[in-house]
Write a structure and sequence with these properties.
The chain is an alpha+beta fold and 292 residues long. The chain has two domains: 6-118, 3-Layer(aba) Sandwich (Rossmann fold), CATH 3.40.50.300; 127-287, Glutathione S-transferase Yfyf (Class Pi), Chain A, domain 2 (Up-down Bundle). The chain has eight helices and nine strands. It has helices at 40-48, 61-64, 137-151, 154-174, 180-215, 240-253, 255-261, 284-287, and strands at 6-15, 18-24, 74-81, 84-91, 102-105, 108-109, 224-229, 272-277, 282-283. The strands form two sheets. A six-stranded antiparallel β-sheet has the order 2-1-3-4-5-6, covered by helices on one side. Strands 7-8-9 form a three-stranded antiparallel β-sheet. β8 (272-277) and β9 (282-283) form a beta hairpin. The longest helix is centred in the C-terminal third of the chain and has 36 residues, at 180-215. The two termini are 36 Å apart.
Length: 292
């Protein structure tokens, strides 16, 4: 059984509408009630910022600080985490030149936000995500990657390293610097990272598919079939080294095309999560209209 993670204390300072707030919790499920605008979602946003990224609203950090506050915001939490009890503090200082997020774990500055995944891994579903099926492919990729991150903490680092390498390649192509050795080195790195990302996503889809199959008869909800499309479709049963070689070759062959487009046209950043309603044999996107 996975270790149950629970919050025992949450303290907010100058966070959204809270000048100061302290919650003492005991590990049981929590239901928040209150009038519109009371700050229920703000509390959930604070919890979501105990994970890498910008939280469930994806807000700029400067926008999170309470209006009229003299400085930045802070979040402090005590929780029973994956590795035992841990204290996490995060926030920003607005009197600095930048509004970079600061993070401390057990009082020690963390090198990266990825260290949070050693202690807890969060996933959220919000009403705003009802449009996941009808929204952009980037929204679906982001949702899937957060699922992967909950099981594979290294996935976030691979994704950010891939994006960094891809930006370097795009810049070289945009500037017309077609140095074969330089580009080949970047493309090999992209191939290694990109295939690892794609395989991790495929593994997550396999786990979800098995869960759907196991609960299909007893679940009151429609069952779904899941697949990734848009990048090396149907090839992921092959050895990863072969996939890396093929993707690196694809990148090498498409340099002039990508230079003309101003972006890299092939890769895991172009993949899309496709969801079908099994019983109706229809894409989920077609099932959601304005009234649904």
């Amino acid at each position: 059984m996975p270790h149950k993670v629970s919050l025992s204390r949450l303290k907010l300072t100058d966070f959204r509408n809270y000048a100061a707030a302290v919650l003492a919790l005991d590990g049981r499920h929590v239901v928040l009630t209150g009038d519109n605008g009371a700050g229920k979602t703000n509390l959930m946003e604070a919890v979501s910022l105990l994970s890498p990224g910008r939280g469930l609203r994806r807000a700029a950090y400067g926008d999170i600080t309470r209006v009229g506050a003299p400085g930045g915001f802070s979040i402090f939490a005590v929780l029973d985490g994956i590795e035992g009890e841990v204290e996490i503090g995060t926030g920003i200082e607005t009197d600095e030149e930048t509004t970079a997020r600061r993070l401390r774990i057990n009082g020690t500055p963390a090198k990266t936000a990825d260290e949070l995944t050693d202690h807890l891994r969060l996933l959220w579903l919000t009403p705003a995500m009802d449009g996941l099926f009808t929204g952009t492919s980037s929204d679906r990729r982001r949702f899937l990657d957060r699922l992967v991150l909950s099981l594979d903490p290294a996935h976030g680092r691979r994704a950010s390293d891939f994006e960094r390498a891809m930006r370097s390649r795009n810049k070289l192509l945009d500037e017309g610097r077609f140095d074969p050795s330089w580009l080949a080195g970047i493309e090999e790195q992209m191939a290694s990272l990109g295939i690892a990302m794609a395989l991790a996503r495929q593994e997550m889809l396999g786990l979800l598919t098995r869960l759907i199959d196991e609960t299909r008869e007893s679940s009151p909800f429609p069952s779904a079939s899941l697949q990734l499309a848009g990048f090396m479709d149907g090839q992921f049963s092959r050895p990863s080294v072969d996939l890396e070689d093929e993707y690196a070759a694809m990148l090498a062959e498409s340099r002039y095309r990508d230079a003309g487009a101003g972006r890299t046209l092939e890769g895991p950043h172009r993949a899309d999560l496709i969801v079908h309603h099994r019983e109706k044999a229809m894409e989920a996107e077609r099932l959601f209209g304005p009234a649904e």
